[in-house]
Amino acid sequence: MNPGRRVLWINILFGAGLALGLPWLAAGLLAHLWGGARGTAWSSQHAYAVRTFWMGLMGVAGALASAGIGFMEPLLALTWLYMAARVTRGFLAWEREEWITDPGRFL
Are the CB atoms for 1 and 36 separated by under 8 Å? Predict the structure, then answer.
């Protein structure tokens, strides 16, 4: 499959994962299994998708860990907003077929 199509499917699953959760895990699994396309704009987008997966997973884990002290809901809301911003940036870069500069940066 074309690397651009793979990145698109990962982004679609991340978008669906914002509502349903389970597609988020599928997107992370596919991003790790498919690997990047070195030397193309898709490689930076792929790295961005992998980091989006891990940041989202860490945000949810942190929110669950803070459940005992009453911060779970606000942290889950912040994690969701942050992931929505990253997914939107991923879709915009895919549409323009652009490199994502510094895919490891915070936003």
Answer: no
At residue 75, φ and ψ (nearest 5 deg) are: -70, -35
The encoded tokens of residue 6 equal: 């793979």
> How far is Cα 64 from Cα 43, in angstroms, rounded to an integer?
32
Residue 98, pLDDT above cutoff 90: no
What global pTM score does this model have?
0.82
| 3-state per-residue secondary structure call for 51-63 | HHHHHHHHHHHHH
| Closest C-alpha among 42, 41, 48 to residue 27 | 48
Cα 69 to chain centroid distance, Å, stands at 27
Q: Which amino acid is at 70?
A: G
pLDDT class for 88, splitting at 50, 70, 90? Answer: very high
Q: How many CA atoms lie within 13 A of 32 on its CB side?
A: 9
Q: How far apart are CA 49 and CA 10, in angstroms?
A: 7
